[in-house]
Design goal:
Blueprint: H1 11-18, E1 63-69, E2 73-74, E3 76-77, H2 78-83, E4 93-99, E5 104-106, E6 115-117, E7 126-131, E8 134-136, E9 155-157, E10 168-170, E11 174-178, E12 181-183, E13 195-201, E14 207-212, E15 254-255, E16 262-263, E17 293-295, E18 304-307, E19 312-316, E20 319-321, E21 323-324
Parallel strand pairs: 1-4, 2-5, 3-6, 4-7, 5-8, 6-10, 7-11, 8-12, 9-17, 10-18, 11-19, 12-20, 18-21
Antiparallel strand pairs: 13-14, 15-16
């Protein structure tokens, strides 16, 4: 509760607001000295030198707000949670947000952070995040296997894997005590290209060539794992979805006859904080039509465990997987 902005004010009022040790003197109450926070409500209180009772009109002790995340959740915005607390005083609140052991904070999409600390807080707010659980982005999906056109020519690219989602976004100074895991999600695996594969011989002994659809890439790891890439065209195959910790397998290689002819497998999705793998190249080209090939897709990029790292003071780093910016 803030001190009055005018009227009668005494040392006892200052003691009631800020505490301190007897015998009391105003020199206990310099701003930023321990008892009086360096917050917007206290800008009239000097940090050193001459200090007077009148400097304390409107000053306020820091409010404590503790937030506990005790069950799994997605797309968590810390400001939304804190500002809903009636005790919150912008610029004069010390906030501790704790993620309990065994709790996962995730994201519903690769375009949304799992846990966000925006700059909407008051400048004087002091924020500490204690992570005893897991904060994890959404996994990137695998690329889809391509369908061979009726008259292929040149090197036709297959679909790449999709980029994974990020874990934490910070846009103002905070302290993080990470005793758990902060992890970007895994990127999706790239698809393999379609292929012309020998599937036997013609009655005259020549190669029997079939147009074979591509294989989808595996989905990346994430709290909402990436889906495996689909396929189109005869002989194509889908990739598998990822899990919370591992990337899914790409669709398997299609082997012709003889076995030296094949259409490549889809790339494996990335584990937490890892890129997806590129699709496998096709086997030897048809020697009669060497230009008819399909290039595999690249793997999708991993998510970041942190965006906004320059704002963060780390009191404990814990497990951190993926990139950082």
């Amino acid at each position: 509760m803030a001190l009055p902005g005018s009227g009668v004010l005494g040392v006892s009022d200052i003691v009631d607001e800020f505490g301190g040790s007897a015998p009391h003197g105003l020199s206990e109450y310099y701003r930023g000295g321990g008892l009086v926070s360096d917050s917007p409500s206290n800008t009239g209180v000097p940090t050193s030198g001459t200090i007077a009772i009148g400097d304390f009109y409107g000053a306020a002790s820091a409010v404590l707000v503790n937030i506990t995340i005790a069950s799994n959740t997605n797309n968590y915005d810390l400001y939304t949670a804190v500002s809903a607390n009636p005790a919150y005083v912008p610029g004069a609140t010390t906030i501790t947000a704790t993620i309990n052991p065994g709790v996962t904070v995730g994201s519903t999409s690769t375009g949304t952070y799992a846990f966000s600390v925006p700059n909407a807080f008051g400048a004087g707010d002091i924020i500490t995040v204690v992570n005893n659980g897991t904060v994890l982005g959404a996994g990137g999906s695998g690329g889809a296997g391509s369908s061979p056109p009726s008259s292929p020519s040149g090197n036709l690219p297959a679909q790449p894997g999709f980029t994974a989602g990020n874990a934490v976004y910070v846009n103002r100074p905070i302290t993080i005590n990470n005793a758990g895991t902060l992890a970007g999600a895994g990127g999706g695996g790239g698809a393999s290209g379609a292929a012309l594969v020998q599937t036997g011989t013609t009655p005259k002994g020549g190669p029997n060539i079939s147009k074979i659809g591509g294989a989808g890439g595996g989905g990346g790891a994430g709290v909402n794992p990436g889906a495996g890439g689909g396929f189109s065209g005869s002989g194509g195959s889908a990739g598998s979805s990822g899990s919370s910790t591992a990337g899914g397998a790409g669709g398997p290689r299609y082997t012709g006859s003889p076995a030296t002819w094949w259409r490549g497998a889809g790339g494996t999705g990335g584990a937490r904080g890892a890129n997806g793998s590129a699709g496998e190249p096709d086997g030897p080209a048809n020697p009669n039509t060497p230009s008819q090939r399909w290039n595999p897709g690249a793997g999708g990029g991993a998510g970041r465990y942190m965006t906004g790292n320059p704002f963060v003071t780390w009191s404990a780093t814990g497990t951190r997987q993926g990139g950082v910016s």
